[in-house]
Amino acid sequence: MAAEYNCTQYFSQYPEANSDEAKDLFITSLIDTIVKPYRPYHYYILTSLVLFAFFANIMIVIVISQKEMRSSGVNVTMMLIAVCDFGCSVSALAQLLLRNFSDYYSSYITAYAQLIVDYFQIAFHASSLYLAVGMSFCRAISLVLTKDTRDTWQSPRYALRLGIVLCLPVFFIASTNLFLNYVKEKDENGLVELEVSPLSVANSCWYMKFALVLSGSLFKIIPCILMSGLSIVILGKINAGKQRAIALSRSQSDNTQSKIDRSSRFIQCIIIIFVVTEFPQGFFSVVGGLSINDYINYFQFFSVFTNLLAYFNTTTSFIIYSTLSSKFRKLFVQLFVPRFIKDRIGKSSNIVVVQSTFVESHVI
User: Fold this and answer.
1) Cα separation of 178 and 176, whole Å?
2) What whole-number distance in Å separates Cα of residue 194 and Cα of residue 211?
3) Domains of the chain by range and CATH?
4) Whole-structure pTM value
5) Residue 192, beta-bridge partner list
6) How far apart are CA 66 and CA 263, in angstroms?
7) Nearest CA to 82 among 270, 338, 264, 280?
8) Residue 184: beta bridge partners?
């Protein structure tokens, strides 16, 4: 496959795909034993994951947009992350509908629409990562500042401004992926397909290699490194705050420390999940850019798993909020759980309390 593009790569190359030498390669056996058996199920698993992300992020935006939640800069940033994850899930649904089990498209419009939704998927997903970096940065800065300055860094208005500043460059840089492919007519029946663009294969595939390395490093690895560094800073400040709290009165220390621990644990969970899910994708993309022929022949088959990691990440905000935020759970129940279910739960709780009281009094 790669031989027709005349690409060069920086590392020693595997034998050409489908050759006799390639049959005995370990990576070929991985493709045959793992990727190919999984492929028939990928569409359904990915669709289920994307649909969950679609509805989960809608609910996050609805809940966090309530007056009780949007007074916090962290919550505003999380709402922006949910908006980006929602845009990513919409783009993924559009990708699945446009492709419709086929490598070909019915018209030029659908083929160009595929290029556009691919761009938005990359841009929205990368924006959510940098928003998480911005949120962690604001949290780290607020831990070392005075109260007045800290309130500024944690204010909703400041979070909104920072989100815009972070997202605009991401959407601009992500446009480099629009030029990797072009639309080509397949046959006289009107079917069209996406082919690797002449720009991508010019000069030994320089632009293709550049786009892969840029996407993997700037949109995946660098955010992971930044979030890891900020997490170390936050943990250090939390430990220092606990030591200082020993000198305060117990009531004041418990109140202050509980607020620090809750918000910081929340950010730590996001950082860990983002690093675990995003760093492998970035590493895969950078290695693919440096070994472009092997990427075309072999590595791209594993993209089905990196796609799952990416779309799983779009669901983590809902999971983390539901687990760590009691205020989110309370508002979620108020907004989305039907009244008759809440009434039944309330009655069951009352019955349990009455029975427990009766038994205790009887024993006495």
Assistant:
1) 5
2) 17
3) 2-324 (1.20.1070.10)
4) 0.84
5) 105, 185
6) 19
7) 270
8) 193
